[in-house]
Amino acid sequence: MRITRHRYTVKPGYVAQNRQNLDEFITALTAASVPGLSYRVFLEEDGQTFLHLVTAQDDPSAVITSLPSFMKFQSELLASDPVVRPDQVGMSLVAASGDSHE
After folding, report:
1. Under a CB-based contact definition with an 8 Å cutoff, are residues 11 and 78 in contact?
2. What is the CATH number of domain 2-91?
3. At 89, which helix (H) or strand (E)?
4. Which tens digit of pLDDT belongs to each residue from 27-71?
5. Residue ranges covered by each domain of the chain
6. Which end of the chain is more exposed for a tag (fewer CB within 10 A), N or C?
């Protein structure tokens, strides 16, 4: 299983646009129906920091990056001059409790 965490902070005036772009991307990704893929986006308490948690059986990057809605999301995010630029960290599951699909 591949687990990746992406995190970045946007300016307050860009939060609503980022959420709209994410909604469009997640809708398209859901429609693509990639087996074994879970893509979740969280907004941290500061209201500006987004955390994406991606779990997949196989590398989903080819599917994700081919979606026009992802390309729009990514290009507009970078053009917005984020407070903290996106980073990516691969992770390994060590322990879990409960249903991870809740």
Report:
1. no
2. 3.30.70.100
3. strand 84-91
4. 999 999 999 999 999 999 999 999 999 999 988 889 999 999 999
5. 2-91
6. C
